[in-house]
Amino acid sequence: MSPALLLLLALGLGLVGWLAGRARAAAFRTGMPGQRLSALPNYHGWYVALWIVIPLLAFVALWAFAAPELVTQSVLASPAGQALPAAGMERATMLAEARAVAAGSARAVFNPDAQALVLPFRAAMTRYGWIGTVLALIIALAAGAFAYLRVKPELRARTRVERVVMAVLLLASLIAILTTLGIFLSLVFETVRFFGMVSPIDFLTGTMWGPDTMAAVDRTDPSLYGAVPLFWGTIFIGAIIAMLVAIPLGLMSAIYLTQYAHPRARRWIKPTLEILAGVPTVVYGYFAALTVAPFIRDAALMLGVDNPSSESALAAGLVMGVMIIPFVSSMADDSIAAVPDSMRDGSLALGATANETIRRVLVPAALPGIVAGVMLAVSRAIGETMIVVMAASTAANLTANPLEAMTTVTVQIVALLTSEGSFDHPATLAAFALGFVLFLVTLALNFFALSVVKRFREAYD
Amino acid sequence: MTSPVPSEPALQHVAPTRTDAFARRLKQRYRAERHFRLAGLSAIVFSVAVLVFLLFNMTVNGIGGFQRTVLEVPIDLSQAQLMLPAGVDDEVAVVRSLQEQGLSEIVTAATRQALGEDAAAQLGIDAWRTIGEDVANDPALLGTRATYQLPVTDSLSSAFAGEGSADLQPLARALATHGVLHEAFDPGFLARSDATDSQTVGIWSALKGSLLTMAVTLALAFPIGVLAALYLEEYAPRNRWTDIIEVSINNLAAVPSIIFGLLGLAVFLAIFPNMRSAPLIGGMTLALMTMPVIVISGRNAIKAVPPSIRDGALAIGASHIQVVFHHVLPLALPGILTGTIIGMARALGETAPLLMIGMRAFVATPPHGFTDPATALPVQIFLWSDEVDRGFVERTSAAIIVLLGVLLLMNALAIYLRNKFEKRW
């Protein structure tokens, strides 16, 4: 039975249980006037429905893991299964092929020997499909009947149902922890494997980057896994060029919007600026690669630069800076607005002009918040992928010339993982190590920025 | 009436302030003020100008992407002795049957007869399919002679635009002067799938892949996000566990999207190894990314519901669960929905995690289910942007216009919901 069908079955049986439970509880109420139910009939309905649906879904989940194994066992026990080669790749591929054909996901087998297995597979699948369905029905009916018989006037159905609801709520919020843990563990796991092949010191201090995805696994050359050029490219594009664009523009727009602009103009300009943050990064990447990069190349040629790269760090950095503007601007906006009015009024009352007040009073007072905003923006910029994948180069280059091609951590992660390497190859694992470094750096930046913002907010409250 | 004049002798003890130096300084300070104000304004003007230029650039390029070069060929199907398959009204089956009856050769022969050998050689590979689909929709065409607009090859198309190889440009000019070769609006761009030839590509398979992926994302992220927000805002005890949950949600909201791709690759694809490129896996990966956004916006919406409503419900005997599900949640729902739509819009434009889990395959048929290989609209844009052909530049921009259009619709819906339903307490 398909998962969707099983889900529908569970919902249908649950509905039946709900109706039955409610009807029984309602019957108590009409049957014995004057007697109070401990819970409304609806809750009795929910009580029965949950008793049906939860065991049923638990069984289905269990069965989804158990059934394929049982099917394989029964096929192996059949005459065709006995004739299989003893062990190894061939046996596994033949089984997989026959299973795919029997399940209808493949049209025919490549290996003619596997054809004999298709029929046993199909038979076993049908048989275990039926067994599973019957078992599911029995479990649902038994649990439902049990719950139905427990529906009594004095049953505290609401308390019990609410306990389940609370458990579901708790589970939902635990998923966040699970995700964090999943990210952390999967990155750590692959990174440790990578460091088994290439020492962390070579990785973090080497200046040559050029993993050979074709090289044999046991002949890894650690000197080709020096990630310093990638770190430098990431910092140069994301934290230097992009910030040179985003900080002045973002800060000045925030100042103009909060201090000078007419409220009506502000109401229109602010959402317009925020569109910049809503444009998908792949669109920025396309813009950078197709319009900005050739323009910069031509401009550099006109200025007499020899052979400027058409995948320059400058193009990617500039476009990334534009993308970050609303981010810096809204953070600066918030922290300037958090400065108490009395400070501004005091400065203006002493005769300072508006810009003197802003530069000497408001911005210094809001500085922690602005710095935190910039740090969040940097963490955003160094984790940004599509702009650099499309506009920056894949060639690692340790230089401070913005017209040269440069690569970043995210570009290399994409390049290494889209080249169809195996999971045991150091080049593939290197992508996870790079991801781990990226994860730690963005986490540290965010953590630090948020604690600055928090302390700053407390100072004025 | 005269205003009282300040007594002269009192002022004479104070040094004069309105000196020339003071006036100069004041002038300078006012000038600095004007410059500063101008700098602020120009920062905004620059940012908006970049945005306008970006959108303008995409639109201008993209308009060409909704057109394609067509060749007008008169074909008399009444002499071809084509038969419609009996008892089949499925378009795909009809087209396949016509193909088996040699429609492709008939079309090429007719073109050769009407426009010459060179023109027939430049007919798009799928040209006959256009006719087949027309016939399937209107069987009466089989008995008549009609002029069809057929797609041409990439080379002829770029020759028509005055680019590409010089060999074909005379042919393109000759055909154009006869009025049989021209650009025509191409509604099929929204209905076809990826192809190797820019003249026959379409975005339907990518769009459908995106829709399937978004459906999975919504189905997972919305309930989990809302329930987690309710728990954290309404029930969570102040303890270490709650702190850990809050910290991890805030961190997840800031983790670069590509890291989620790595998670999807290392965990989801390890559990379901034969579902590479499937919308199910893509949706699960994006759901993890969207969930924190929904939790954070959901908590803000729940926080905005005034305590008096909770107190009132508790006072007349509702349980904690009833208070939340009967009163708080319905009132917070518009705010939660707004946050959800914004989170979904971000997920829809996301590319990097999908690249990681392999949704970058060449997909020539639209996915039929959640486990079929698929690609997504932003990934399709990325794939096309790598093509050197001029035709693909326009197609890419056209796909970007479609993507931006969908995002615009989603954001407009979010703004509408906010204005219509959000209550200020």
Give me the CATH superfamily of the largest domain in chain B.
MetI-like
Overall pLDDT level of chain A: 86
Molecular shape of chain A: flat
> Helix/strand-derived class of chain A?
mainly alpha
CATH class of the largest domain in chain A: Mainly Alpha
The CATH topology of the largest domain in chain A corresponds to MetI-like fold
User: Helical stretch count of chain A?
Assistant: 16
Counted beta strands of chain A? 0
Secondary structure: elements and pairs:
The complex is a heterodimer of chains A (461) and B (425).
Chain A: H1 3-31, H2 41-77, H3 79-82, H4 89-103, H5 115-150, H6 157-197, H7 200-205, H8 228-260, H9 263-278, H10 281-302, H11 313-337, H12 341-349, H13 354-383, H14 386-391, H15 409-417, H16 426-460
Helix pairs in contact in A: 1-2, 1-5, 2-5, 2-6, 4-5, 6-16, 8-11, 8-13, 9-11, 10-11, 11-13, 12-13, 13-16, 15-16
Chain B: H1 8-11, H2 20-65, E1 67-76, H3 91-100, H4 103-115, H5 117-121, H6 127-137, E2 145-151, H7 154-160, H8 169-177, E3 181-185, H9 204-235, H10 240-254, H11 257-271, H12 279-303, H13 307-315, H14 320-348, H15 352-356, H16 377-385, H17 390-421
Antiparallel strand pairs in B: 1-2, 1-3
Helix pairs in contact in B: 2-17, 3-6, 4-6, 7-8, 9-12, 9-14, 9-16, 10-12, 11-12, 12-14, 13-14, 14-17, 16-17
